[in-house]
Write a structure and sequence with these properties.
CATH topology of one domain: Immunoglobulin-like
Number of helices: 22
Largest sheet: 6 strands, mixed
CATH architecture of one domain: Sandwich
Helix content: 40-55%
CATH superfamily of one domain: Immunoglobulins
Oligomer: single chain
Strand content: 15-25%
Distance between the termini: 88 Å
Structural class: alpha+beta
Number of strands: 17
Radius of gyration: 47 Å
Length: about 525
Amino acid sequence: MSKRDEFITFVNALKATSPTISTEQYRGLHRQAETKYDLSVEEASEILKNSGLNVERTDNYIKILGLSIEELQSHDEDTIVNRVEKAYDEYYRASLKAGARPRADGRTEEQWRTLLNQAQDTLKDSQKREEYIENLQQEMNDPLLGGSSTPIFKFPNGDEALNISQLARLMLKHPKDATDALYREYLEQSLGRVGEMHFADAARSVVSEFSDNRELGLSAMVSILQEKMEFQEGQNARTPAQLAKSIDLNWEQAKNLLFNGFIALWLQYTQQTELANIARNIMELYKDEQDIGMEKLVQSLNPRIGHPKLHISQEAINFGNIDTETQKKVQLEIKNIGRGFLYGNLQLTNDIPGLRLSTTTIQGDTRFTIELDASLLAAKKTYKTELVVNTNTGDPTTPSSQYVIKAESESPINTNVGGLSGDIKIPIACYVDYPVSKSIRRIAVSGVSVAVITIAVCLIILLLGNTGWLATRLTDTNFVTFDADWTEWSDKWIWTNWTIYKPGTPGIGYRFVIALAALVVGVFAYWFFFFKKRGQL
């Protein structure tokens, strides 16, 4: 089926539903014929004329009350209201006097008086009057509706745009002249003269928004006139849902268009005011986190587009049995295996001294480390907490919103999740014990050191001159001077000390052994409490 036949089928289907359409619907059909079905203005007009559709023209309230547009625009508000009321009273009284006689326009007098009431109500209110005059002028100047054939804009080379879609095409054809006309306000003035106040206001906003980037300003104006946004990869967006899909396929380009104001302006002048306000709020709140802002806009444009899905490298963390001198690190990886941009945060359900996260934020694929310093923990104790992973993985009531956790076994676990509301809890545990081997080694070294020192002291005492009395008391020998032969003395000393440890040694030997044992116990006790005080036992 050709594009022409497709358009005819569409118009006939519309007529079957509503044989009478408004002037705005009529203009909309023309725009669709040109942009969607690639038909000329003349072809579209012929098809619509032959379709039998009735176009409901706007009643000219100004003419009904015998007034003029210039009269209503050139006086102050009080004067305008007085003239409207005076004209209304005059025509209403005349209708009452006419009785039931038929009118030349085919209406009854009762229908005529209803029309007079509508005219008075519209023209007395300044806001209603302004909107009405704008719509009326647009209709009167629209060649599609039999109005003036005055072109909307005439380019320096002689090309004329008779309607909005032609204007957009000619602006692309003559970008230099179009940019000059836009930024010198010629385009705004021309659109205003033919009653296209909506697009005239758009031209003014574009110039203000993109005063430093005229190329972007021209692109924005053309996009507004065409009511579509074009992207680098060839996608065109006319609806919010189409825009959401195009953003996913052109993420970086769309991010620039959002945060330079292009998207908000396009939404505003394509009758998406609420979405335009959302886009502006995102621009303000997420200028430092643009990917997050972009994802929020996509979800606003099309809540059914789908959410990110979470993949985590581990489902539990167990540091095992560790001593108080241990430091351990575990690295985790978070990935998005769904659409869009994954973001969120990390937090522990309860703090453990020495347990640290390398980051608390998730933005896109994220690697982070959990580090444990056991020197800050008490021994003989089990520590437990949970790592809570909050992400934008969607509504927990939506079956398609799932995350996937993969442990070391790579066995997937699928679970429904929600938004930033504690999607996943990963248990963390460890048991802290004494550093036994190191303690024993230190005690042994210390004991040997003390023993060596004790023997050295004994030797020093024996070798000092004139210390016979002290040596006698310590070793139970009976010499009082070192004048004796060295060999005799050394033999006597070795034999005497050997007898101390022989079974049946006199009591003084036992006392010496007890003294040494007490010394060893004291050293052991000292080191035990020293380590305990430092948290190493």
